[in-house]
Structures are given as C-alpha cells and as structure tokens.
Structure of Oligosaccharide flippase family protein:
Amino acid sequence: MSFARVALSGSAWSLGQMLVERGLQASLFFIVAKLLGPAEFGIAAIAISLPMVFVATLYGTVQVIIQREEASDDFLATAFWFAIGLGVVFSLITIALSPLIAHLIKAPNLVSYMVPAAFAPLATSLGVVGEGVLTRKFQFRMLAIRRTAGLFGSAPFCILLAFAGYGPWSLIANTLLTSLISSSVALFGSGFRPRFFVDRAELRAFARMASYTSLAQASVQANTRLADLAIGIFAGPATAGTFRIARTIIDLVISVIYQPFTSVLMPIFSRLATDPQRAAGILAQIMFISCVVLSFPFLALFASAEAVSATFVSHAWIALGPLLAWMAVAYPTNAVIGSSQTFSISQGWVRMGLILTVVDLVPNMIFLSIGATHGPVVLGIMFSLRAYVVAVVVLAILTRADPTMAPRRFVKALLPCYLALAVGAGVLVIKMLLPSVRSGLVPGVLLGVVASLVYAGMVFWLCRRQLHSVIGTLPLPARVRGAVDRYMLLGMQASG
C-alpha cells in the first residue's frame, strides 16, 4: 500500500473515530446532566479536570514512540515503565492536591470523588506503548476502535449509575472505565507484551524527548479542563457544570463542522507551500474559508440558543441558554487560533505551535475567572472576548515572527468575521426589542435561519474574489469549476 493510501486510510479512520467519540460523549453528557443537575455535574467535571490534563500529558509520550527510528524491544519496555511511572506520579499528585481543591471549591465531599478519579492517568499509562506501536504499524482501524470501545463499554454503566441516583459517581466511573478499556484494547491489539526491563540510557533519552511533546499536549487539554476548575473556585460547582455542558456543545460543533473541513483543506494547501510567500497566502486562505464556515453556527446559536434551551431544558439548567449564546460568538476566532496552531505544526514550526497554545491558555484562565463571578451572561461574554483578544495576539506573533506574513493580508482574509459580527449585532437588537424571540422556539429558530441566510448573501456578494481563489485550489470537476467562473463573471459585471 502506498504512503498516500496509508495517509488517506488513517485520516478516514481518525476522522470517523473523532466524530463517533465526540457525538457519543456529548450524548452521554446530556443524558447524565439531565439526571444530575448543574451542581452534581459540576462536581464531577471539577473532579476529573486535573486527571484529564495528566492523561493528555501521557499521550505526549506516544509521539516519542512514533518518531523513534528503531523501536527495539528494550526501548519499548523502557517506554512502558516510564509511562507507568508517570501515571503513578500524576495519580499521587492529584490525590495530594484534592484537599486543597476541595477547600477552594468549598465542597469537602469533592475529595471522595477526586481520589478515585486520580487513577485515570495510571489506567491510561497502560496503553501508551500499545498506541505507539499501533501507529507505527499503521493499524488505524484498531486505533479508532480502542477509544470507541472504551466509550461504548463505559456509557451504559454510567447511565445506569446516574439513573440509580449515584450522582457524580456516574461520570467518575465513566472516566475510569473508558481509560481502562481503551488502554487494554491498545495494549493487547498491538501485540506488545511488557517485560520488566529498563535501559537507563534509553530512559534518559526518552524523558528528554517526551518532556516537550507532553508539555504541548498538556497545554491544549489544560486550556479546556482547567477552566472548569477556575470557574468552580470563583462561582461554585453549579456554574462549572453549566459551563462544561455549554463548552461540550461548542466543541461538538467544531468537531463536526470545522475539524473535518480543515482535515481536508490542510493537506491540499500544505502541498502548495513551497516558499514563505506562498505559505502566508495559504494560511490566509485557510483563515478566510474557516471564518466563513464557523460564522454559521455562531449566528444560529446566538439567535436560538436561549429559545431552544427554554423549550427543551429543565429549569435547573436555565442559565445554559444565555451562556451558550454568548459563548457561540467566539466561533469565528477559531479561524485564527485553530488554523494558526494547525498550520504551524504542518509547516514544522513545533515551537511556534506550543507558544500559540500557551498564549491561548493564560488569557482563558484570567478572563473566565473574572466572568465567573458575574453570572452566565458575563461569563459567556468574557469567554468570547478572550477569544478575540487571543486571535489578535496570535496574528501579532505570527506577523512579527515571519516578515512574509503581511498583516494587511490577514485583515482582509477575516472580512467574513466582520460581516458575521455585524449580522450578530442585528440579531442582538432584535432579541432586545422582541423578548418573545428568546423564549419562543419557532421565532428563535426562524431568526437563526434568517440571520444565516443574510450572512451567506453578504459573503457571496462581498467576498467573491476570495471565494474564487480558495475554490480554485480544490480538485473540482470541470463542470463545477465552470459554474464558479460564470458566477464570478456575473458578479463582476453586476458590480462594475
């Protein structure tokens, strides 16, 4: 099998696994959240926040195994015990910090949930080498199965515990079982069998290489999970639980709409990046089309989230609608933040990718901590404001680091974002003038549809040249390309 076919197969399995995982995980969260309520759900989210950051840190060691030229049995055995050691250390750190976190949250019973949740990193460490071996062997199907099997195996037990009234224990059990089942599938599916052997030279080299990749993975996960902890400290478990559900919905939309889209565009654009000037143009194209795509869920949720929440969600989750509506305003910023991080990695700018991740993490914690003390609306506003501040900083870093990254090019590429914000301002005015839009399902959904259609018309009319430039890079059939060219010609005649 050629490398192109291997890459295509791997991308397809990875994309399918991600969509199934995110969809199943979101469905599970919604079911359990309805049974638990915001406070208990928030306690569970806080309890697993730190262990999930450590789990992501462990996955950074997988990259070292993949990148190793020769993965001998001695090397794999050393890597296995290194991962186990890290898992033990991370579990002990979580247990040690649990009384302090419980004190800050003002929830003494949090310790009883954090202690068992602390073993998630240890359970994950069992499968680190197995996952690395599977990746080296291009066994993408087994890699996709391992995580999905963990979710399918743990979900029924989680729902059963929630129905039986065990509250946060349902999500704690889900976290532990998912990690244990996934690790078992990876370990046994890879054919690797651990033996008690540690090569000191290999151990030092492995630790040195893993420190950087693990830090990068931890930064990404910390950006998501530590927000739950910060909000819990400043606003309590109920607000943390509401935020976690809203963030799950935001991330689900990005996973379904944006990530598959960029997984197709990135390889196409990356093949054209033969010089720095061309690379800057490619990044601008990615930002432009990503901004167009992500503006639609922004407008749809901003217009209808409160109405949909008021119709389908119990009174206990009343704060979810306004929080979700304002968090959706941040969607277009992923065109800058997410695209820049992914593009940096695709171009081999690994250190730049890590810098951009840290730049996103620090303001995230500060803004959310401030917003959490002023209610769900302000929390949602601060979430989105933070995203736009980070997007500006990311662009400033990129343009300063590389002289070929002309700021004017990116300002022009983000025209769809400005148009979306203008339409969003109109939606806000309508919601303020017509309160029924916020509580009525039909008016709310209708407003979202109209706003999306108005935005689409503005983009097609005002961004024709950019659309044509991006579409021109795609391998489209001659008939479709001809239709695009005719559309451009008509648009130029009408405007000239």
Observations:
- The chain has a mean pLDDT of 82.
